[in-house]
Write a structure and sequence with these properties.
The chain contains eight helices and seven strands. By secondary structure, the protein is α+β, with helices and mostly antiparallel strands. It has two domains: 76 residues, Orthogonal Bundle (Arc Repressor Mutant, subunit A); 81 residues. The protein has a four-stranded mixed beta sheet. It has a three-stranded antiparallel beta sheet with strand order 1-3-2. Helix 3 crosses helix 4 and helix 6 packs antiparallel against helix 8. The chain is elongated, with a radius of gyration of 18 Å. This is PaaX-like protein.
């Protein structure tokens, strides 16, 4: 979806970085992270800043970039990026197809807007289909390249029935 709307692979990487979680970055670190030239990163950072999607500011001698949460399309872009990464789809499928899931939460660093590389979920319910959960979580790991930790809790018993870690 995002690939058909945005033709620059570098721009897609930057949008994913800045709009998938609250993050900041500077030119050289972004070039190293994406394994691209500083010039190609600079061009896209300038375009996104001129469009108002990113803001920049000096931190010492370094120019830092952040997603502009005041931009009129901020929430729409963040939603598109989240759907592209599959998190919305994962939660929706978890709730609909895993059995008697009463509540599903994304918790931990990701829920606080920090990408530590791990997405933590808590599922509360009974008779959760573990085989299908394995399939969904494995698929999500492949798509978003993040470790996924799922804690399953039985609400009636008030106990944890298992912790699944993928990635």
């Amino acid at each position: 979806m995002l690939n058909s709307l945005v033709t620059s692979k570098t721009r897609i990487k930057l949008l994913l970085k800045f709009f998938s979680y609250s993050n900041s970055g500077y030119l050289r670190a972004l070039a190293k992270e994406f394994d691209e030239s500083t010039n190609s990163i600079r061009i896209e950072l300038n375009r996104l800043t001129e469009a108002g999607l990113l803001t920049s500011g000096e931190e010492g001698k370094t120019k830092m970039y952040r997603a502009n949460d005041q931009h009129p399309f901020f929430h729409e872009i963040k939603g598109m990026v989240s759907k592209f990464l599959g998190l919305d789809q994962l939660l929706e499928q978890v709730v609909r197809r895993l059995g008697n899931v009463e509540k599903a939460y994304i918790v931990g660093d990701y829920a606080q807007g920090v990408d530590s590389g791990t997405i933590e979920m808590i599922l509360i319910g009974k008779d959760i289909d573990r085989k299908y959960l394995d399939f969904l979580t494995d698929k999500t790991y492949e798509k978003v390249n993040r470790k996924v930790t799922i804690t399953v809790m039985d609400e009636a018993k008030g106990e944890m029935t298992g912790i699944l870690i993928y990635g």
